C-alpha cells in the first residue's frame, strides 16, 4: 500500500512499532535519547527531513547509527521520520530528580594533575567542534596542529565555556547534556543532563556556578561547578501564568551574574551568583531601605526587567551595564541593566545576529558590528549614540563575524546565501569596506573564523563532513595550511574567550 493512502493512525502505529524495534535501544523508549540523541521536533530543528531520511536509510559513518535501507521499505522509513518529527503528547517532563539521577562522575578529580599533561601553551589552544562524527579536536595554536581528539555528546550548541583560567571547559548539547572537561588533563570529569532540549550554557569564571538555558522543559537550571543541581527555575512571567522557553543565558563577569532572555515572554532576567547581593522585591514594599515588604534572596533568583518585546539575541557593552537585543523580526532594543528598563531603540533590519557581534575603536568612538541572518549586510553601530554608522554590503546574509584587537581586518561569512556560502569577505575596520574576498569551492560552506591568541593567524571552517580547518595568515590573507576535520562547525581559542577578546563572541 502506498504511504499516501495509508490511514494516518495506521502510519503512526506502524512507525511507533518500527521505532521500538529499531531505534529505542539507542534513542530511548520515550525518544528522550540514550546512546543516541533525543528524537523530538525541538532537537531535530536543524536537521532537514531529507537529511534524516538519508541517515535512517544509509546510517552515519564513524558512529553507531546503522543503515536501515535494507531492513525497512522506503515507505516505512518515510513514516518513521514523519513520526519522530511529530510532538510527543503530553510533552515530556524532566524533573529535578531526573537531573540528579542523570549525573555521571567519570573521573575522581583528586587523581587529576594540577598542570597540563602536554607542552603546548594552554592559553593558545583551540577547541574544534566536529559535528560530522560528534568529536572535539584540541589544536595547538602555536604549531597549528592537533594534539588530542575526544568524543562528545550529540549536537553541541552555544559554544564551549571556559573557567578557572581555561583549565576547565563546559559543553552543552542540544539534548540537554552538560559536560565538564579538564583541558589540562584531556579528560571528561563529569556530566549531567539538565534538560531535554537545551540552548546553551554559561559558567562563572571561577567555575563554581553553571547556568543552563532550556527550550524543553521551560526552565533555567543552575548547577555547581561539579555539575550537582543547585536549583531549577521555572521560566514563567512575573505572575507565573505564561510559560516560556529560555532563548539563551550569558555570564556577565563585572556584575557577577547570569543574564537570560525568555523567548515567549518579554523579560530579561539577571541571576546573581554571588551572595553579596541585595534581596529582590517581589510584591508590595513598605520601606525598601528597611526591608519591609515582600522580598526573596538575591542569590540565584531572577531580577526581572520588563520589555516591550521578546529578545532572541544579545550583545553586551564591555562593562555589561547595557545590552543590545533583537527579536527574530529585527526589532532592536537597548536595555540598561542597572535601571532595568529599555533606554533606546535600535534601527535594525532583517534578523541581526547580535550574539556574533564584535567591537573596536573607530575614529575616536567605540563601535560594534553584527551580521544579519536575512539581510546581506554587516551593520556598524555607535555604542554611545546607538546610531547606525554604516551598513556594509556583503555577498549574502552571514552568521559569524570575527576579528582580533591586533588585526586591522574583520572576517564575515555569507553562509546563509546558497550561492555565496563559499565566500569569506574581509572588512577593513578603518575604512569600513570589504577589501578582499576569499573564495572556497562553490557549493561548500566556508565560515566561522577564530584568531590565534596573538592575532597572527585566522582559522576558518570548511563546514563539510569531509571538511577542514583552513589557516590563513591574518596579515597577508593567504592560506597557510589545512587540517582535515569532520564538519568543523566551530573553533574556540582559550585566550580569546577567557580574556573576552573584543574580536570574538563571549
Structure report:
With 506 residues, this protein is mainly beta. It is 10% helix and 41% strand. The chain has a five-stranded antiparallel β-sheet. A four-stranded antiparallel β-sheet has the order 4-3-2-35. It has a four-stranded antiparallel β-sheet with strand order 9-10-11-12, with helices on one face. Strand 14 (257-262) and strand 15 (267-272) form a beta hairpin. It is globular, with a radius of gyration of 23 Å.
Summarize the structure.
GO terms for molecular function: electron transfer activity; heme binding; metal ion binding. This protein is 10% helix and 41% strand.
Strand content is 35-45%
Cα-atom Rg, whole angstroms?
A: 23 Å
CATH class of the largest domain: Mainly Beta
- The total count of helices amounts to 6
Query: Which regions have little confidence, pLDDT < 50, spanning 5+ residues?
Result: 1-5
Structural class by secondary-structure content: mainly beta
Give the oligomeric state: single chain
Total strands:
35
Number of domains: 4
- Estimate the mean pLDDT confidence: 90
Secondary-structure map:
Blueprint: H1 8-22, H2 24-27, H3 49-58, H4 74-84, H5 96-102, E1 104-105, E2 125-130, E3 135-140, E4 145-151, E5 161-163, E6 168-172, E7 177-182, E8 187-193, E9 197-203, E10 209-216, E11 219-224, E12 229-234, E13 246-252, E14 257-262, E15 267-272, E16 280-287, E17 292-296, E18 302-306, E19 313-316, E20 322-326, E21 332-336, E22 341-346, E23 352-362, E24 365-372, E25 377-382, E26 388-393, E27 401-402, E28 409-413, E29 423-428, E30 433-439, E31 446-451, E32 457-462, E33 467-473, E34 479-485, E35 488-493, H6 494-498
Helix pairs in contact: 1-4, 3-4
Amino acid at each position: 500500500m502506498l504511504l499516501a493512502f495509508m490511514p494516518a493512525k495506521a502510519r503512526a502505529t506502524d512507525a511507533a512499532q518500527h521505532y521500538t524495534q529499531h531505534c529505542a535501544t539507542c534513542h530511548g523508549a520515550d525518544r528522550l535519547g540514550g546512546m543516541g540523541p533525543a528524537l523530538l521536533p525541538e532537537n531535530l530543528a536543524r536537521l532537514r527531513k531529507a537529511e534524516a531520511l538519508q541517515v535512517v536509510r544509509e546510517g552515519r559513518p564513524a558512529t553507531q547509527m546503522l543503515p536501515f535501507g535494507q531492513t525497512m521499505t522506503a515507505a516505512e522509513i518515510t513514516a518513521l521520520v514523519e513520526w519522530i518529527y511529530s510532538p510527543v503528547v503530553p510533552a515530556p517532563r524532566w524533573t529535578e530528580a531526573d537531573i540528579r539521577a542523570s549525573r555521571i562522575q567519570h573521573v575522581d578529580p583528586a587523581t587529576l594533575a594540577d598542570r597540563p599533561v602536554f607542552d603546548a601553551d594552554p592559553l593558545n589552544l583551540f577547541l574544534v567542534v566536529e559535528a560530522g562524527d560528534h568529536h572535539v579536536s584540541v589544536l595547538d595554536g602555536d604549531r597549528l596542529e592537533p594534539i588530542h581528539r575526544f568524543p562528545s555528546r550529540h549536537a553541541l550548541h552555544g559554544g564551549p565555556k571556559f573557567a578557572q583560567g581555561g583549565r576547565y571547559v563546559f559543553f552543552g548539547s542540544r539534548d540537554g547534556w552538560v559536560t565538564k572537561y579538564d583541558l589540562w588533563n584531556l579528560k571528561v570529569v563529569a556530566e549531567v543532563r539538565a534538560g531535554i532540549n537545551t540552548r546553551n550554557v554559561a559558567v562563572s569564571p571561577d567555575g563554581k556556578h553553571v547556568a543552563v538555558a532550556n527550550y524543553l522543559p521551560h526552565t533555567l537550571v543552575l548547577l555547581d561547578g561539579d555539575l550537582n543541581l543547585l536549583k531549577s527555575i521555572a521560566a514563567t512571567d512575573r505572575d507565573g501564568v505564561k510559560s516560556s522557553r529560555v532563548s539563551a543565558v550569558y555570564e556577565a563577569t563585572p556584575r557577577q551574574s547570569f543574564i537570560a532572555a525568555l523567548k515567549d515572554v518579554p523579560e530579561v532576567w539577571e541571576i546573581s551568583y554571588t551572595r553579596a547581593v541585595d534581596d529582590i522585591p517581589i510584591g508590595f514594599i513598605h520601606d525598601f531601605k528597611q526591608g519591609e515588604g515582600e522580598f526573596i534572596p538575591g542569590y540565584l533568583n531572577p531580577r526581572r526587567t520588563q520589555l516591550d518585546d521578546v529578545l532572541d539575541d544579545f550583545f553586551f557593552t564591555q562593562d555589561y551595564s547595557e545590552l543590545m537585543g533583537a527579536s527574530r523580526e529585527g526589532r532592536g532594543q537597548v536595555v540598561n541593566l542597572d535601571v532595568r528598563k529599555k533606554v533606546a531603540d535600535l534601527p535594525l533590519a532583517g534578523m541581526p545576529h547580535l550574539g556574533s557581534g564584535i567591537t573596536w575603536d573607530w575614529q575616536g568612538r567605540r563601535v560594534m558590528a553584527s551580521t544579519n541572518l536575512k539581510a546581506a549586510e554587516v551593520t556598524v553601530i555607535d555604542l554611545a549614540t546607538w546610531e547606525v554608522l554604516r551598513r556594509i554590503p556583503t555577498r549574502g546574509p552571514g552568521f559569524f563575524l570575527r576579528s582580533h584587537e591586533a588585526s586591522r581586518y574583520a572576517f564575515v561569512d555569507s553562509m546563509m546565501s546558497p550561492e555565496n556560502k563559499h565566500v569569506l569577505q574581509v572588512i577593513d575596520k578603518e575604512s569600513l569596506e570589504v577589501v578582499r574576498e576569499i573564495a572556497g569551492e562553490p557549493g561548500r560552506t566556508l565560515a566561522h573564523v577564530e584568531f590565534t591568541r596573538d592575532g597572527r593567524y585566522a582559522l576558518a571552517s570548511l563546514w563539510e563532513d569531509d571538511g577542514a580547518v583552513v589557516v590563513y595568515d591574518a596579515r597577508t590573507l593567504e592560506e597557510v595550511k589545512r587540517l582535515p576535520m569532520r564538519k568543523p562547525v566551530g573553533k574556540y581559542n582559550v585566550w580569546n574567550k577567557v580574556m573576552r577578546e573584543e574580536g570574538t563572541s563571549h
